Every structure is written in structure tokens, then in C-alpha cells.
């Protein structure tokens, strides 16, 4: 079944600057040979995947006319997906963020129209599907476990924060909890920036977090390529995802579990669904609770069952399994 995947215009489909959507699209494209990815012109794209640079709707229409795909998958662009459904029988819309804040889906009428016109509306978590309402399918974001770096046999005594340095992600809570936890022999490390990739700007908020990290003795690495992030997770003993906002999915949490780190998170939005019972859950903005969880996980005997549960849960999200479900959604009448 020939397919096109259409990225959001601002999505960078390259190893050094890919965000969550591009990472997910790459995994699906590799799982279905012959897939062509459409996106804005880029100097570099992921190797081994057919990438067609396009500009605007006219570029999309030219690609469809040229390639004549059986399936078109549109990420994060409801109005484009509904328009293309008039031209291609099987158009799937992938929703990665709150549908009630997306143009074309904010109203109940818009969501009903999407279900009526599209082959499938696919939400990346049950949380988002619940926000969308009737007619939405749930398809978790995949993670290709065989591509992960080897897990360290002896974990480093490191508490790791990975994510964007924005208020929603609560990096300030991580820093404050580390300062309160008092864990001799342990270090804390933060990876991330305002955006993905080396071109991430040094915003005022990022500068403030950098200064707070320095004062608390936290190593602040800034944004790193995704491969470097996974390598850090493969050796860190604990990963903390302290998000304030309702995460649409929680890919960082999934990567942490699959990498063999013990996970602490707030369970906001899709995070609870991803982590299941394989993480320590703490309330949002509760610095003492997070500090206590950090200190408790300094004991390897406490971490061990959590790590085992995380590794087992991560298998449910392997690309091979999720791709089978996607294939079923594509082919279903």
C-alpha cells in the first residue's frame, strides 16, 4: 500500500533537530517501505527515507498527482486533511496535541465533520482521544527498541531531566527538588533548550533556568541531538519528567523506561497512560514530594523493581507492534 506522510510545515525532519513528531514519522516510514514523507525544504533529512520537499498546499497536490498514493497521513493539520479527503479515499489525520486548541477541531461540529470525512482520526493517546470525543482512534507513539543504545550494566548515580526548557515542563521544580533532596554521591543533569536542535534560542526563561541550575550545582548541557539524549538515558539511574501541563503523550517518559532508568513523573495527561504502574508519581509542583522520591530512588533495591516494570511496559510501544495496529487502521473499511 503506497503512502504519503505529510509533516507540519515547521517540523524539522533531521537527526540533529527532530522533535517528537518527526521521530515518530521516521519510525513509521521505516516500518512501511515505499513511504514518502512530505515536508518543508531542509538541508538535511533522515537517511534511508524518501523525502520530498514541498511548499504549501500546491506542493502537496503536485505530490499526490505525481505519486498517486493509496493512503495519505496528515500530522497536525486538520483542515488540510479534510480537504485532501475529497481527493484521496484513505486520509488519516494524526493528532499529537489537544484537539480543542487546533484549527478545524475546536468546535464539536468540526470534530464530527473530521470523523465523517476522514478515513480515520488517530490520537496518540487515550487522553487526547477523550478530548476529541466520539470517533477518534488511539494509536500510541512508537519507539523502536532495537535502535536504543546499549543499557549500562552499572548505572551512573545521575538524576536526569530531559525536555524543553519551558515553564510547562517545570525544569524549575527539578532544580528546587534536587537542592532539597541532599543526595551525597549523586549528581543532577539537565538536557534541553527552548526548542529542539542546536539552533534553539537562548530565551530569557532558558537563561534563568541555566543560572538556577548553576547555583544548585546542576549540570546544564542545553539542547543535544536525540542520539546523545538516548545515550545519557542509557546510563542515568533516574529520569525525572515533572511536567505541569497535560502532556499529549510523553515520549521522554517512554524513552526513559525503555533505556532502563527509573522514572519519576507527574502523570499529567498522557504521561499516566504511558507510564502505567512503572513510575513513581508525584503531584504537580510539589517540590518536597519530588525531593523525597529522588532520595528514595537512591537505593538500588527500590529502583530495581521499577526499572523492571518500565522495561516490560516499554515493549508495548515497540514500533513493530504499533505499526501492525496502524496497518489495520489503514486497511479497515
Task: Describe the protein's architecture and organization.
- It is a single chain.
- The protein starts with a strand and ends with a helix.
- By secondary structure, it is α/β, with parallel strands linked by helices.
- It is built from 13 helices and 13 strands.
- It has two domains: 3-142 and 318-331, Glycogen Phosphorylase B (Rossmann fold), CATH 3.40.50; 145-316, Glycogen Phosphorylase B (Rossmann fold, 3-Layer(aba) Sandwich), CATH 3.40.50.2000.
- Strands 3-2-1-4-5-6-7 form a seven-stranded parallel sheet, sandwiched between helices. A six-stranded parallel sheet has the order 10-9-8-11-12-13, with helices on both faces.
- α6 (171-181) runs parallel beside α7, α6 (171-181) packs across α11 (287-296) and α9 (251-258) crosses α12.
- The chain has helices at residues 20-31, 56-67, 78-84, 108-117, 126-132, 171-181, 204-216, 226-233, 251-258, 271-275, 287-296, 300-314, 319-331, and strands spanning 3-6, 36-39, 50-53, 71-75, 90-95, 120-123, 136-138, 156-162, 187-191, 219-222, 236-241, 262-265, 280-281.
- The radius of gyration is 20 Å and the shape is elongated.
Fraction of residues in β-strands: 15-25%
Count of beta strands: 13
How helical, in percent, are the residues? 25-40%
The profile of the biggest β sheet is: 7 strands, parallel
Q: What is the number of helices?
A: 13
The CATH class designation of the largest domain is: Alpha Beta
Low-confidence stretches: none
Q: Give the name of the CATH superfamily of the largest domain.
A: Glycogen Phosphorylase B
| Major sheet strand order | 3-2-1-4-5-6-7
The tally of structural domains comes to 2
**What's the end-to-end separation, in Å?**
14 Å
Mean pLDDT: 96
Q: What do we call the CATH topology of the largest domain?
A: Rossmann fold
Shape: elongated
* Run of helices and strands: EHEEHEHEHEHEEHEHEHEHEHEHHH
Radius of gyration: 20 Å
**Structural class per helix/strand content?**
alpha/beta
CATH architecture of the largest domain: 3-Layer(aba) Sandwich
Amino acid at each position: 500500500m503506497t503512502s504519503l506522510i505529510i509533516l507540519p510545515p515547521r517540523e524539522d525532519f533531521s537527526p540533529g533537530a527532530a522533535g517528537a513528531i518527526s521521530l515518530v514519522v521516521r519510525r513509521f516510514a521505516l516500518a512501511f517501505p515505499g513511504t514518502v514523507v512530505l515536508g518543508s525544504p531542509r538541508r538535511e533529512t533522515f537517511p534511508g527515507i524518501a523525502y520530498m520537499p514541498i511548499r504549501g498546499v500546491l506542493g502537496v497536490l503536485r505530490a499526490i498527482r505525481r505519486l498517486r498514493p493509496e493512503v495519505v497521513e496528515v500530522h497536525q493539520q486538520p483542515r488540510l486533511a479534510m480537504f485532501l479527503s475529497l481527493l484521496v479515499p484513505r486520509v488519516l489525520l494524526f493528532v499529537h496535541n489537544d484537539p480543542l486548541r487546533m484549527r478545524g477541531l475546536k468546535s464539536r461540529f468540526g470534530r464530527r465533520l473530521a470523523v465523517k470525512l476522514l478515513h480515520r482520526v488517530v490520537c496518540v493517546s487515550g487522553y487526547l482521544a477523550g478530548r476529541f470525543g466520539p470517533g477518534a482512534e488511539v494509536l500510541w507513539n512508537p519507539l523502536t527498541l532495537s535502535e536504543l543504545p546499549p543499557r549500562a550494566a552499572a548505572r551512573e548515580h545521575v538524576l536526569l531531566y530531559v525536555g524543553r526548557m519551558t515553564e510547562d515542563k517545570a525544569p524549575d521544580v527539578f532544580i528546587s527538588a534536587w537542592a532539597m533532596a541532599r543526595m551525597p554521591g549523586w549528581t543532577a543533569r539537565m538536557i534541553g533548550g527552548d526548542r529542539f536542535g542546536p539552533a534553539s534560542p537562548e530565551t530569557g526563561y532558558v537563561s534563568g533556568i541555566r543560572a538556577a541550575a548553576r547555583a544548585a550545582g546542576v549540570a546544564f548541557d542545553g539542547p543535544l541531538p536525540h542520539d546523545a539524549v538516548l545515550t545519557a538515558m542509557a546510563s542515568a539511574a533516574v529520569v525525572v519528567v515533572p511536567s505541569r501541563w497535560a502532556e499529549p503523550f510523553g515520549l521522554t517518559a517512554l524513552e526513559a523506561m525503555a533505556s532502563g532508568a527509573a522514572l519519576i513523573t507527574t502523570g499529567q495527561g498522557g504521561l499516566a497512560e504511558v507510564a502505567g504502574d512503572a513510575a513513581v508519581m508525584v503531584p504537580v509542583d510539589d517540590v518536597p514530594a519530588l525531593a523525597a522520591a529522588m532520595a528514595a530512588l537512591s537505593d538500588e533495591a527500590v529502583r530495581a523493581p521499577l526499572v523492571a516494570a518500565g522495561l516490560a511496559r516499554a515493549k508495548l510501544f515497540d514500533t513493530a507492534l504499533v505499526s501492525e495496529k496502524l496497518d489495520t487502521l489503514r486497511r479497515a473499511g
